[in-house]
Amino acid sequence: SQLEPSGGSLRAKFYLNMLGTGGGPSVLCPRMSRVNHSCGANASHLSLQDGMRATVLMAERNIVKGEEITISYKNHDDPSCPYPPNQLRDILKGKWGIDCPQDCLCRDTRRAAKIREAAQLDREVLRLGQLGDVKGGVRAAERLLKLESELEMSMITRGRALYDAFQIAVMSKATMSKAVDFARQHHEIKSAFGGPDWEQTRLAYSYWQTPSRHRNYLTAKR
Predict the structure, then answer these.
(1) What's phi and psi for 47, nearest 5 deg?
(2) Where is the SET domain (predicted)?
(3) Long-range pairs for 91-95 at CB < 8 Å and ≥24 separation?
(4) Cα–Cα distance between 70 and 43 in angstroms, integer?
């Protein structure tokens, strides 16, 4: 009853406060709904599937005592996001009444250029992988990961990039050592969110320890 909008119906409260689950149905987490938005969020959240029925709030960096914990309602940094920053600001304003200040990260033009480059690399990684250009795909993936690190993108975004890098590198014996390292880092992120018993953590661990379990293992023809 304390959720916004005050005096609104359950449907209205659900619409305003719901969390996406990465392809599954949206969920309502009253405690998570108390966390405010920031385009430079110091935390991220992930709804665990596979029967875990939990939503995890994870710090993205060291949070000092007294600092407000924030998440991004609409992540302008995500290379896979189909909306430009101005449209995301319109969504934030229209749904939550949030006005991004003039010095907000989402208005930084240099940062925006790097995000566009990251989005292009994100598409290029998969394109090169589909063409069987393993070395080119790995180079693009490494550049993408470097950019994501510079931009301090979320662990969720980095985890996805690491998995894409792994599933391309594992295609060739020449890049297998890199595949193993990508898989190791990917497992670390999955474990941080879901713990050792989460199904996705166990799957990531199996790829790290036994790369041959992946369907792309040594499938490259050149």
Answers:
(1) -90, 120
(2) 32-74
(3) 92/37, 95/16
(4) 6
Residue with tokens 């359950």: 10
Which of 72, 1, 88, 4 is closest to 38 using CA atoms?
Answer: 72
d(CA 168, CA 122): 13
* C-alpha distance from residue 98 to each of 36, 94, 178 (Å): 10, 8, 42
From first to last of the 222 residues of the chain, give the pLDDT tens digit.
Answer: 577 777 888 788 877 777 765 555 677 777 888 899 999 999 998 877 665 567 888 999 999 999 999 999 888 888 777 788 899 999 999 988 999 999 999 999 999 999 999 999 999 999 999 999 999 999 999 999 999 999 999 999 999 999 999 999 999 999 999 999 999 999 999 999 889 999 999 999 999 999 999 999 999 975
| Cα distance between residue 107 and residue 110, in whole Å | 9
- Of the candidates 138, 27, 21, 126, the one whose C-alpha atom is nearest the C-alpha of residue 79 is 126
Cα separation, 70 vs 51, whole angstroms: 27
Sign of the CA dihedral with 61 first, then 20, 197, and 138 last:
negative
Measured distance CA(108)–CA(106) in Å, rounded: 6
Helices (H), the chain: 10-17, 85-96, 109-131, 134-150, 155-169, 176-194, 199-209
Neighbouring-strand partners of residue 44: 58
Q: With the CA atoms of 33, 37, 41 and 46 taken in that order, what torsion angle do they form, in degrees rounded to the nearest 10?
A: 30
Answer whether 56's CB lies under 8 Å from 45's CB: yes
